[in-house]
Amino acid sequence: MKLFLRNFVLYSLMIFLCILFIFPFFWMIITALKQPEELAFTIAFFPEAPQWIHFLEVIMTDEVIPFFPSFRNTLIVCTIVTVLVCFSSAMIGFGFARFKAPGRNFLFSIILATMMLPQLMIFIPQYIMFAQLGFLSLEWPFCYLPWVVTSLPGWAIFIFYYRQFFAGLPKELEDAALIDGCGWFRIFWSIFMPVSGPAVTTTCIFLFQWTYTDYVTPLLYLTSEDQTLAVQMMTNTKAPGVSFTSMIPHIPYQMTVGILFTLPLIMLFFFAQRYFMQGISTTGIKG
Q1: pLDDT over threshold 80, residue 47
Q2: Where are the domains positioned within the chain?
């Protein structure tokens, strides 16, 4: 009886938490299916007549938002950051994990200390630096230079992650490669990277998600024509044929864009969750 009661309480709590976390997305769906007039003049939880046409208007026309150009810009920024940060962080983490050099631990401590800096505090000097270099408001494709510059040194959190992962691999791997005449970059690229698939997948998921949902950085560095979908959704979404000064709200269309914006992240996680869990579970705490 005690076991049944404990399981009942546990599963009830889990169901409640699932409903609690899913409810915002459910609210987005029912709001996206409402007519704009329903939000302006009536109070109803469910839409009177679901407006599935909102999704077609967002995708097929540019009256609501330039969806595909904005989505393309988002994917370009995500690809640049994901590829460069993943590669550079892995190479730096490999160096900290496998090289025994004087001052290695001190340098690694400095890198870890940068994780304590608030992101918003870094934006100001970065913005001034890029403004002086002339990187702001450049034409496509040079408008993505700020992401290239900030991604090449790697990110501290992923340098730490790869350092812990590579430190847990056996030393015999590199010893055998050195005996066969391999250089260190060949060892890194041909031996250590192929066995770090779960770590790479985990890094790519986090990088893609963080960059995909970033609002402040594109707002600072990109022009309105090259903006990402996150910025366009918050600033430029409008109801077709309705001005911004009208009493008719554009919230249903904003929620529609939000649903389409969220779906790639959900699909990415479900397709890669097995590798994601492997990356989390196999990362050691050695070193």
Answers
A1: no
A2: 22-282
Gyration radius of the chain's alpha carbons? 24
**Nearest Cα residue to 84 out of 222, 218, 211, 213:** 211
Segments in the chain forming alpha helices (H): 2-32, 36-41, 53-60, 67-98, 104-113, 119-133, 145-151, 156-167, 172-179, 184-187, 197-212, 216-221, 229-235, 251-282
User: What confidence category does residue 49 fall into, taking pLDDT thresholds of 50, 70 and 90?
Assistant: confident
Contact status, residue 155 vs residue 114, Cβ threshold 8 Å: no
- C-alpha dist (Å) from residue 114 to 62, 69, 89, 106, 107: 42, 35, 14, 13, 11
Distance CA(286)–CA(169), nearest Å, equals: 10
> The tokens of 161 are what?
């992650």
pTM (predicted TM-score): 0.82
User: Tokens 């993943």 belong to which residue?
Assistant: 86
Res. 285 pLDDT band, cuts 50 70 90: very low
Q: Tell me the CA distances in angstroms from 283 to 77, 87, 153, 156, 171, one per residue in order.
A: 27, 17, 22, 16, 16
Task: Quote the DSSP letter at residue 138.
Answer: P
Top pLDDT among 273 and 169 is at 169
| Spatial distance between the Cα atoms of 7 and 12, rounded to a whole number of angstroms | 8
- Whether the pLDDT of residue 224 is over 70: the answer is yes
Any idea which architecture 22-282 has in CATH? Answer: Orthogonal Bundle (1.10)
How crowded is the C-beta side of 48, counted as CA atoms within 13 Å?
A: 9
Q: Angle at Cα 201 formed by Cα 20 and Cα 191, nearest 5°?
A: 160
Do the Cβ atoms of 239 and 51 come closer than 8 Å? no
pLDDT band at 76 (very low <50, low <70, confident <90, very high): very high
Q: Are the beta carbons of 216 and 234 closer than 8 angstroms?
A: no
